[in-house]
Structure formats: C-alpha cells, structure tokens
C-alpha cells in the first residue's frame, strides 16, 4: 500500500501521516530527509522528533538516494520536498536533471521493499509568485513528482487545518 | 462551463485533457489573461466578461492567492483580481474542480 499525504505547511499533515503509518504495525521506520542545516531546520527536526517520541518509530536519516535504502518494515518518508531539494541542490545529490526519475524510481523501489509506505509532500505552487529559474524548476519537478506518486498511490490525502480530506481511495480518485 | 483551478504544476491542463478530451472549447490560463489585461491598462473584468460571453466549455485558472500579500502594488492587485474573477467564474460554472496532485476534487 502506497499512501501520499499532501497539504500546506503547518496543516498537520505529518501528524496524520505518522498515525497512518502506525496502522501498518508496531515496527515502522521513519525516513527523515531533512538535513540539519541551520537553526531553523534543527528546530523543525526537534519538533518532529518530539512529536513522534513514544510512538515507537525507528528513525533512519537519509538525505539522498532512497533507492538503495534497505527497509523491510512499513515506513514513512518525511518528506518529498526535502528529498528533492537535497537531490537537486546538495553536492551528494544526483542533480536537477536526474532528480525526478531518480526519486520516482526510489519511491517505487522503497514501496516494494517496505510493503506499506506513506510519503509526505507539500503544496508549494499556490502563492502566485514566479521565483528565480532554479526555484521554478524545483516547483515544476515537485509538482510532477506529486502527480506521479499520486498516480501510483492507493490512497491520497490533502490535510487542511488538521482535517484529512481523502481524495483517492482504493486506487481511484474518489471526489470526481 | 467547467471551472478548473489549483496551484502551479498540479496538472490542471493534463487533467482537463485526460478527463474532458482535447476537443473542448477551453480557455487555459485565465490568471495570465487577467495579468496581461492589467499590464496593458485594460479592465480585467471586461476581459472576463468577454470570455464568459464566448461560452467556453472549460476555463482553467491557477490558484495564486495562498502566499504572503505582495509588497508590490501590481502583484497585490493581480492576486486579488484573480481571486475575485475566479469567484465570479465559479459562481457561473456548472462544475468547479480543484486539482491536487493531478487529482480533480469536485468543489461544486
């Protein structure tokens, strides 16, 4: 089972996604893609750590190349926008040209190994702002990846103010 | 008329093509039409009325108002106008669809 969870920042999607992943069993791997670069990132990481403390996750920090991750338990990948930024912009990443296919393939492979995988993503294209070329490219690839993963997913949710809206169920769009 | 909205790169155009076919009378990019009208000193509301009078089957418009209010007056007015005109189209539409991750969510 592949579940995609999207929503704005601060919408409560991580909490929802964690609980969704925990329904798959007691041993759930938490794949953390956010690099602890700077105080702001560290603060977010600390907040997420506190949030999942006691929930029994086994945390794996992985910033790039999820394809080669060997996880054999249900898992949650938090989150796609960080993973994409790492692949596109960090020295260890595979670069902007390869990032989309590399990640799409990585998620497909990972979902197979995990059996059940929850992927957390983000909505970044609703502010009407046109950014510099690199950022626009990032937005475009993230949008494209979101669609590819949603297509492959069994369930898709958009979380709004903490309320999960189910927009795909049993492999079919359930809202139109 | 079917009004389709959603953020940038969510797959609005692809969604319309896959679900309604390529042969429909479609206005794609209402937000850009509004912007061009404003940049050229024309009334975006007049342009919107012209589009409506032409009876399109489908109108696609990006959602642009979910960020920080821009400092720049033109950007601010554009965002606001896209929102207002979207409300206008949605009210007149038979169906309103918001696309998220390529999935159409029916709002109306």
Q: Topology of this structure?
A:
The complex is a heterodimer of chains A (176) and B (108).
Chain A: E1 2-7, H1 13-22, E2 28-32, H2 38-52, E3 57-61, E4 75-78, H3 80-89, H4 96-114, E5 117-120, H5 133-152, E6 155-160, E7 163-169, E8 172-173
Helix pairs in contact in A: 3-4, 4-5
Chain B: E1 2-5, H1 12-20, E2 26-28, H2 30-39, H3 44-53, E3 58-60, H4 73-92, E4 95-100, E5 103-106
Parallel strand pairs in B: 1-3, 1-4, 2-3
Antiparallel strand pairs in B: 4-5
What does this structure look like?
The complex is a heterodimer of chains A (176) and B (108). Chain A has helices at 13-22, 38-52, 80-89, 96-114, 133-152; strands at residues 2-7, 28-32, 57-61, 75-78, 117-120, 155-160, 163-169, 172-173. The model of chain A has no long low-confidence stretch (mean pLDDT 93). Chain A has a single domain, classed as P-loop containing nucleotide triphosphate hydrolases (Rossmann fold, 3-Layer(aba) Sandwich). With 176 residues, chain A is of the alpha/beta class. Chain A has an eight-stranded mixed sheet, sandwiched between helices. In chain B, a hairpin with a 2-residue loop joins strand 4 (95-100) and strand 5. Chain B has helices at residues 12-20, 30-39, 44-53, 73-92; strands at residues 2-5, 26-28, 58-60, 95-100, 103-106. Chain B is of the alpha/beta class and 108 residues long. Chain B is globular and about 35 Å long. Chain B has one domain (2-106): Rossmann fold. The mean pLDDT of chain B is 95. Chain B contains four helices and five strands, in the order βαβααβαββ. The longest helix of chain B is centred in the C-terminal third of the chain and has 20 residues, at 73-92. The A-B interface holds A 4, 6, 8, 121, 123-129, 139-140, 142-144, 146-147, 149-151, 156, 158, 165, 167-168, 173, 175-176 and B 6-11, 14, 19, 31, 62-68, 70, 75, 78-79, 82, 97, 100-106.
């Amino acid at each position: 089972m592949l579940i995609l969870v999207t929503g704005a920042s601060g919408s409560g999607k991580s909490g929802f996604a964690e609980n969704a992943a925990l329904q798959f069993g007691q041993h759930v791997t938490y794949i953390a893609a956010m690099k602890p670069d700077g105080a702001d990132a560290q603060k977010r990481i600390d907040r997420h750590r506190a949030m999942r403390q006691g929930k029994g996750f086994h945390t794996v920090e992985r910033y790039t190349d999820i394809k080669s991750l060997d996880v054999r338990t249900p898992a949650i990948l938090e989150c796609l926008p960080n993973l994409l930024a790492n692949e596109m912009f960090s020295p260890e990443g595979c670069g902007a040209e390869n990032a989309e296919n590399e990640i799409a393939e990585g998620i497909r492979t990972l979902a197979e190994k995990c059996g059940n995988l929850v992927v957390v993503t983000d909505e970044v294209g609703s502010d009407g702002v046109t950014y510099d070329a690199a950022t626009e490219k990032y937005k475009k690839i993230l949008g494209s990846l979101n669609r590819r993963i949603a297509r492959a997913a069994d369930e898709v949710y958009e979380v709004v103010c903490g309320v999960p809206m189910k927009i795909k169920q049993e492999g079919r769009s359930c809202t139109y | 008329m079917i009004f389709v909205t959603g953020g940038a790169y969510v797959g609005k155009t692809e969604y319309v093509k896959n679900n309604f076919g390529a042969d429909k009378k479609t206005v794609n990019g209402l937000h850009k039409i509004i912007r061009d009208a404003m940049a050229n000193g024309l009334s975006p509301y007049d342009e919107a009325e012209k589009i409506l009078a032409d009876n399109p089957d489908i109108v696609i418009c990006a959602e642009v108002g979910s960020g920080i209010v821009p400092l720049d007056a033109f950007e601010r007015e554009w965002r606001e106008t896209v929102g207002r005109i979207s409300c206008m189209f949605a009210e007149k539409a038979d169906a309103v669809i918001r696309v998220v991750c390529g999935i159409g969510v029916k709002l109306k």
